[in-house]
From TrEMBL:
The keyword Iron does not apply. InterPro entries: 6-hairpin_glycosidase_sf, 6hp_glycosidase-like_sf, Glyco_hydro_88, PolySaccharide_Degr_Enz. GO terms for molecular function: hydrolase activity. It holds the Pfam family Glyco_hydro_88. Residues 1-23 form the signal peptide. This is Glycoside hydrolase family 105 protein. The keyword Mitochondrion does not apply. PANTHER family: UNSATURATED RHAMNOGALACTURONAN HYDROLASE (EUROFUNG) (PTHR33886:SF8). Keywords: Hydrolase, Signal. GO terms for biological process: carbohydrate metabolic process. It comes from Pleurotus ostreatus.
Length: 404
């Protein structure tokens, strides 16, 4: 083959490859969901094919449910159902890595999937599975104030993460199966309020944004506990993101005109959300529009813009405005969230040659198992296609695409 012909062919191939890689569907929500499904993510199995009761899967399934309701594409419903069947035996036993005796709130995040499928199918196995988690909450260890411990192995510690993991299910279960259970509604209200009160930044601390620390130790005995309320040292973006999503999701569950037993919860959640929403907006980086991994240390060396928390904030604040939970009379919240979303789409979305979407810059984990300080958070690696971030981007995309 002549050299110039080979050169032209190479250029043509590169051009085709570039076109494939840069091709982006009109709906990023669909793209994110289809990509996760193609990779087999969030299907109730771990990487070795064993049953896994995972909060990440519950988060994705929540997004797939919303996408199914919007598009009517049965693929999404079927994937949700298959994911549940992988962790629930026909008799309703939740199996795999789940142990009630661990008293961890994390696996409870799959509970809304069971309740959703129960409402769709009426199959008793989903009621039995949901009852398993409700039984766990009945005996779950608490602080003296009544806050659920995040896990049995973290005595007296409440984490923002746990509100999303446990209380979205708690609210959905109560709404669906025990709507007049006033003590349950009061308990859910208490969970949110205690977390808010014990983790809220004081205005006098350095770099205070009036946001929420990652967690607190009511006993004040762990290494990171502050002397006043036992709170942890930093505001971690994803922990706050979990809490913000829980606020809007539980408000959706109870509805705009709840019966008397749920009205105090609605009042509390609206008050908390209306307090935090403008502060979350204000805490975004002014140039990029997105949020630092450690929000309480903006611009510090080794800190970086993190994708899962940013996506959670966009989802929460756009939904808050759309539902009327938060006023945005001047349009500034929506404008800020659009700016953040467009940064995410332009910087953290990767178009793969196989047509799937890649997602970058999601920190692998954030725990209060150790020092809980700045160096800990920035020392945790980021992952490609981490489901905690990808599912959050799916949710953010659903809200963003509602704007157009």
């Amino acid at each position: 083959m002549p050299r110039f012909t080979l050169f032209a062919l190479t250029l043509t191939c590169l051009s085709i490859s570039s076109t494939l890689v840069s091709a982006r569907p009109s709906s990023y929500a669909v793209w994110a969901a289809d990509s996760a499904i193609k990779r087999g993510q969030g299907n109730g199995l771990d990487s070795s094919g064993k049953a896994s009761v995972s909060y990440e899967h519950g988060e994705l399934q929540w997004g797939l449910r919303l996408l199914f309701e919007r598009t009517g594409n049965q693929t999404y419903y079927n994937y949700i159902q298959k994911g549940a069947e992988n962790i629930v035996f026909p008799n309703g036993t939740v199996h795999g890595n789940y142990k009630l005796s661990d008293f961890s709130l994390d696996p409870v995040r799959t509970g809304p999937t069971f309740l959703y499928l129960l409402s769709k199918t009426g199959e008793t196995k989903y009621r039995t599975a949901a009852d398993t988690f409700r039984t766990q909450l009945n005996g779950h260890p608490r602080t003296a104030q009544g806050q659920f411990w995040h896990k049995l192995r973290y005595p007296n510690q409440g984490w923002l993460d746990g509100i999303y993991m446990g209380d979205v299910f708690y609210a959905q279960y109560t709404k669906d199966l025990q709507p007049t259970n006033a003590s349950a509604w009061a308990d859910i209200n208490n969970q949110f309020n205690l977390m808010f009160q014990n983790t809220l930044q004081n205005s006098t601390v350095p770099n205070s944004a009036g946001l929420l620390y990652h967690g607190y130790d009511f006993s004040k005995t762990t290494v990171w506990a502050s002397a006043d309320r036992g709170h942890s040292p930093e505001v971690w973006d994803r922990a706050l993101g979990w809490f913000m999503m829980a606020l809007v999701d539980v408000l959706d569950i109870i509805g705009p005109t709840p019966p008397a037993a749920q009205q105090q919860l609605q009042t509390s959640l609206l008050q908390i959300l209306r307090t935090l929403a403008p502060r979350v907006k204000a805490a975004a980086d002014k140039d990029s529009g997105v949020w630092w991994l450690v929000i309480s240390q903006p611009g510090r060396s080794e800190n970086y813009f993190e994708s899962s928390g940013s996506a959670m904030f966009v989802y929460s604040l756009l939904k808050a405005v759309r539902r009327g939970y938060v006023s945005d009379s001047d349009g500034s919240i929506v404008a800020a969230m659009k700016k953040a979303y467009e940064y995410m789409a332009n910087n953290w979305v990767v178009a793969n040659s196989d047509g799937t979407m890649g997602w970058t810059n999601t920190v692998q984990v954030g725990s209060l198992d150790g020092a809980g300080d700045f160096n800990y958070y920035v020392g945790v690696p980021t992952d490609l296609n981490d489901l905690k971030g990808l599912a959050a981007f799916l949710l953010a995309s659903l809200e963003y695409e509602t704007l157009s």
